[in-house]
C-alpha cells in the first residue's frame, strides 16, 4: 500500500459521495447518466465477487462493500425515488450500453490472465470500467451546461484514475515481480477518456465560471 | 506472482 493508491481510493469514494450528496440535497439527478451508474455497479459486482472468500485486507473489503452500496443507492435514487426520478434526463441518456458490454465481454474471453470463470469476470470488469464513463460524457456533451457538482464528480473520477497510474509506476519501481499489463492498458485508456473533459473543467475553474462544453 | 498481482487493487 502506498500514498498514491490510498489517495486514489479516497478520491474514488469522494466522487461517489459528491454525486450522492448532490442527488440527496437537490433532489435532482439532472445531468447524471443512469447508464454510466448501472455500468459502474456491474463493474463492482463482477470484480468484487470474491468478497466472501478471498480476504485480502479489511481495507479492501470495506471499500468493496462501500462502493457497491453507494452506487446501488445512486441507482435507487434515480429509478425509485419519487422526486428524483422525475428529474432524470431520459431523452438525452440514450447511449446503448450493449455496445460497451458485448465488446468487453468478448475481449475478456480472448485476452485474460487465466481461463477461469472468476478471472474472466474480473478481466471483464477491468475492461468495462475503462469505458463506463462514456454514456456520462455523451450526456454532458449533449446537455452542454454542466452544473458544478456533476463537473466535480467527473473531475474526481479522472483524478482517481490518474493516481492509480502513479500507484502502478510506484509499485513497478519498488516491487520486483509486479506486472499487470491488462490493468495498465485499460487504466491508460480510461484516464485518456477524461483528458478532453479535464481541459474544459480546468479552463472553467481558472476563469472561475460555469463549466460549458463546446458543441 | 505475475498476472494475479493486480487482484489486490480495487
From TrEMBL, chain A:
<dbReference type="GO" id="GO:0046923">
    <property type="term" value="F:ER retention sequence binding"/>
</dbReference>
<dbReference type="GO" id="GO:0006621">
    <property type="term" value="P:protein retention in ER lumen"/>
</dbReference>
<keyword id="KW-0813">Transport</keyword>
<protein>
    <recommendedName>
        <fullName>ER lumen protein-retaining receptor</fullName>
    </recommendedName>
</protein>
<keyword id="KW-1133">Transmembrane helix</keyword>
<feature type="signal peptide">
    <location>
        <begin position="1"/>
        <end position="25"/>
    </location>
</feature>
<feature type="transmembrane region" description="Helical">
    <location>
        <begin position="182"/>
        <end position="202"/>
    </location>
</feature>
<feature type="transmembrane region" description="Helical">
    <location>
        <begin position="121"/>
        <end position="140"/>
    </location>
</feature>
<keyword id="KW-0256">Endoplasmic reticulum</keyword>
<keyword id="KW-0812">Transmembrane</keyword>
<feature type="transmembrane region" description="Helical">
    <location>
        <begin position="152"/>
        <end position="170"/>
    </location>
</feature>
<keyword id="KW-0931">ER-Golgi transport</keyword>
<comment type="similarity">
    <text>Belongs to the ERD2 family.</text>
</comment>
<feature type="transmembrane region" description="Helical">
    <location>
        <begin position="58"/>
        <end position="77"/>
    </location>
</feature>
<dbReference type="GO" id="GO:0016192">
    <property type="term" value="P:vesicle-mediated transport"/>
</dbReference>
<keyword id="KW-0732">Signal</keyword>
<keyword id="KW-0653">Protein transport</keyword>
<feature type="transmembrane region" description="Helical">
    <location>
        <begin position="97"/>
        <end position="115"/>
    </location>
</feature>
<keyword id="KW-0675">Receptor</keyword>
<dbReference type="GO" id="GO:0005789">
    <property type="term" value="C:endoplasmic reticulum membrane"/>
</dbReference>
<dbReference type="InterPro" id="IPR000133">
    <property type="entry name" value="ER_ret_rcpt"/>
</dbReference>
<dbReference type="Pfam" id="PF00810">
    <property type="entry name" value="ER_lumen_recept"/>
</dbReference>
<dbReference type="GO" id="GO:0015031">
    <property type="term" value="P:protein transport"/>
</dbReference>
<keyword id="KW-0472">Membrane</keyword>
Amino acid at each position: 500500500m502506498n500514498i498514491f493508491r490510498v489517495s486514489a481510493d479516497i478520491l474514488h469514494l469522494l466522487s461517489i459521495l459528491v454525486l450522492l450528496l448532490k442527488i440527496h440535497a437537490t433532489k435532482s439527478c439532472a445531468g447524471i447518466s443512469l447508464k454510466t451508474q448501472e455500468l459502474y455497479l456491474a463493474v463492482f459486482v463482477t470484480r468484487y465477487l470474491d468478497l466472501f472468500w478471498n480476504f485480502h485486507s479489511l481495507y479492501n473489503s470495506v471499500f468493496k462493500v462501500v462502493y457497491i452500496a453507494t452506487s446501488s443507492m445512486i441507482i435507487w435514487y434515480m429509478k425509485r425515488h419519487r422526486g428524483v426520478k422525475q428529474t432524470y434526463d431520459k431523452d438525452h441518456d440514450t447511449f446503448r450500453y450493449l455496445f460497451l458490454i458485448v465488446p468487453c465481454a468478448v475481449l475478456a474471453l480472448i485476452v485474460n490472465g487465466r481461463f477461469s470463470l472468476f478471472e474472466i469476470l474480473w478481466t471483464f470488469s477491468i475492461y468495462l470500467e475503462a469505458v463506463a464513463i462514456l454514456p456520462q460524457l455523451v450526456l454532458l456533451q449533449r446537455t452542454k451546461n454542466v452544473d458544478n457538482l456533476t463537473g466535480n464528480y467527473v473531475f474526481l473520477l479522472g483524478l482517481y484514475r490518474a493516481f492509480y497510474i502513479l500507484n502502478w509506476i510506484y509499485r513497478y519501481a519498488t516491487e520486483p515481480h509486479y506486472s499487470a499489463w491488462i490493468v495498465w492498458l485499460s487504466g491508460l485508456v480510461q484516464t485518456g477518456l477524461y483528458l478532453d473533459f479535464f481541459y474544459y473543467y480546468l479552463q472553467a475553474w481558472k476563469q472561475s465560471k460555469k463549466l460549458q462544453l463546446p458543441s | 506472482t505475475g498476472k494475479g498481482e493486480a487482484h489486490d487493487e480495487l
